[in-house]
Design brief:
There is one protein chain. The protein is an all-alpha fold. Helix content is about 70%, strand content about 0%. The chain has 6 helices and no strands. The protein is globular. The relative contact order is 0.14.
Length: about 180
């Protein structure tokens, strides 16, 4: 994005960039851990390795709390508004409907792909762009947003399709047909 940093604000900019990276890591880790936790039984049935299977409930809960703090605490200093928190809620909601019963939409080809592309790329990048737009007081360009988010969505679809191709054998073994 073509922006100029106001003189004297470089240290604040780098602090916000670090906070942005931490919150991104926290949200991504939350989504990964939630999905891994809810897949323990089906992964065991399919003969897949699940990184949380040998953790106790307390250890899993501790990991979840840690990543929630890593994802949430940066918002004490990151610029935010109502839209910021709506995007955060959307991101968390996408993780939840993707992984948890009764919906567990990860088991439905098509919708799972759209959700994955949205929570992995589109929503986080839009939140980051919005956050830094607030910092730069709206001076970030918005005319290329449709192209950017369309490309991110396509990238997300590509990555989840590759993941589904790699899991095809294991998924069919337990009766999940996430890829036609």
């Amino acid at each position: 994005f073509p922006v100029t940093i106001v003189p004297g604000s470089r240290s604040r900019f780098w602090l916000l960039l670090l906070a942005s990276l931490l919150t991104s890591f926290g949200f991504a880790s939350f989504g990964y851990l939630l999905n891994e936790w809810t897949d323990i039984t089906s992964d065991a049935q399919a003969g897949k390795v699940n990184k949380l299977a040998h953790f106790t409930q307390l250890q899993r809960g501790g990991l979840m709390l840690a990543v929630i703090l890593i994802g949430g605490l940066p918002w004490l200093i990151l610029p935010s508004d109502k839209l910021s928190f709506q995007l955060i809620l959307l991101e968390l909601s996408l993780f939840i409907v993707y992984s948890l019963q009764p919906l567990r939409l990860k088991n439905f080809w098509g919708i799972s792909n759209v959700l994955d592309a949205a929570y992995a790329y589109v929503v986080p990048i839009y939140l980051a762009k919005h956050t830094f737009s607030l910092y730069f007081q709206g001076s970030l360009s918005t005319h290329s947003d449709l192209l950017l988010f369309s490309l991110l969505f396509c990238l997300g679809l590509r990555n989840i399709l590759i993941h589904q191709i790699n899991d095809l054998h294991h998924d069919r073994y337990i009766g999940h047909f996430t890829l036609l």
